[in-house]
Amino acid sequence: MKNYKKLTSVLSILLVAVLLLSLAGCQAAGSTPAAQTSAGQTTGTKTVTDLVGNQVKIKNNIERIAIIPIPWASVAFAVDGSGKKIVGMHPSAMESYQNCILKTVAPEMAAANSTFVDNSFNVNYEEIAKLKPDLAVIWDYQPEVGKKLAELGIPSVAIKYGTLQDVQNGIKLLGEILNKQDRAAALIKWQNDVINSLQSKTKELTSKDKTKVLYLRDKQLQVGAGQSINKLMIESVGGENVADKVSGSWTKVSMEQVMAWNPDVIILSDFSDIVPEDLYKNKLPGQDWSSIQAVKNQKVYKAPMGIYRWDAPCVETPLMMEWIGKVIHPEMFANLDLRNDLRTFYQQFFNYKLTDAELDQILNSKLNPGLKI
Q1: Tally of domains within the chain
Q2: Do 222 and 332 belong to one domain?
Q3: What gap in Å lies between CA 184 and CA 167, rounded to an integer?
Q4: What is the pLDDT of residue 329?
Q5: Which CATH number covers residue 148?
Q6: C-alpha neighbours within 13 Å on the C-beta side of residue 58
Q7: 3-class DSSP state for residue 59?
Q8: Which residues lie closer than 8 Å to 103 by C-beta, 6 or more apart?
Q9: For residue 43, what pLDDT is reported?
Q10: pTM attached to this predicted model
């Protein structure tokens, strides 16, 4: 009997020990996936590589972003499908937001702070700290800003900008940051599909068939020059950028040079308030547009403006190319339905149904009454 009791006691102790070990094993096994990230790391972080090659450790689930580069607020919105995470953006980006369809599509972005950075991209570190961002987006030429932000405990990613490839690289990076890789890939594919389709229609054009286009930024005669995205926009749909040989992106030229170019079509940027009537009625001091072919034929047009200014590299650049195609080669692009393409794009990526009035707003129809699109 004593041996039996002793054996029972030993077995009981062994069973309790096995049970405790089993529970401990279950807890350890259960904690591993909770602590791991989609990047295979722990502590709720992951590492991304920004557009200048910096390895940046960030939260897995970014909830608050402060964005210094002007166009990137609209790009972040497009990739995420919402503006709720954007807590700060550049004042020029806010100005664009207040005057475009993005204000209607993403009303939540109106709450974003636009005082933490000035028009020259100088950062107020006290103000940005108050925003408590999980991440800041900075220009590639701002490494000192990145260092100061790091001292405040704010990680930052640097972006390059100026070409459509830069935009696509940025879209991909934002997809990784926001865990929206599939959405980012779909945006890039859509861009490339539209551009390839447009270029296939114009590849047989000779130089004699190409329309001479001047892209005018402002009343100071800054034009879209040889290193501008506007060159790509124009050439992709069978146009000739008359300022192709001028160096730079936006470059100031003389009225005499414009007269020598004598463009067939003039496109006016959304970066200024210049409108076709300013040229038709010679309202600009010190400039005489009366002899320019585009003015004489009333072929001066105000550029569209979607979720951002279409003059600059942006998510909607392929739609801008479609618009220019309709402007300079209406017969060649007669079957291209830009309004329908706009509706489809906004529905697919923003889950937003554009009205006819909103389409007119985007296309600046009131300022372009002679343009039937």
Answers
A1: 2
A2: yes
A3: 11
A4: 94
A5: 3.40.50.1980
A6: 27
A7: strand
A8: 97, 109, 110
A9: 53
A10: 0.86
Take residue 294 and report the two structure tokens written for it: 């585009």
Question: Do residues 216 and 341 share a domain?
Answer: yes
pLDDT value of position 19: 36
249 and 325 belong to one structural domain: yes
Asked if 301 contacts 373 with a C-beta cutoff of 8 angstroms, the reply is: no
Q: Which positions of the chain have pLDDT values less than 50?
A: 1-42
Range of the domain at 117: 45-179
295: in domain: yes
Among 318, 348, 169, 362, smallest CA distance to 229 is for 318
Residue 209: the pLDDT is 83
Beta strand 239-241 with 250-252: parallel, antiparallel or unpaired? unpaired
How confident is the model at residue 163, as a pLDDT? Answer: 92
What pLDDT was estimated at residue 1? Answer: 43
pLDDT at residue 198 in the model: 93
Give me the residue label for tokens 């470059």: 251
Query: What 3-state class would DSSP assign to 115?
Result: coil
| Token pair of 266 as six digits | 């003039």
Amino acid at 266: I
Residue corresponding to tokens 């041996």:
3
What span, in angstroms and rounded, lies between the C-alpha atoms of 175 and 165? 15
Gap between the terminal Cα atoms of the chain: 101
Please tell me the number of Cα atoms within 13 Å of 356 on its side-chain side.
1
Residue 206: per-residue pLDDT: 77
Task: Give the Cα separation of 126 and 219 in Å (integer).
Answer: 37
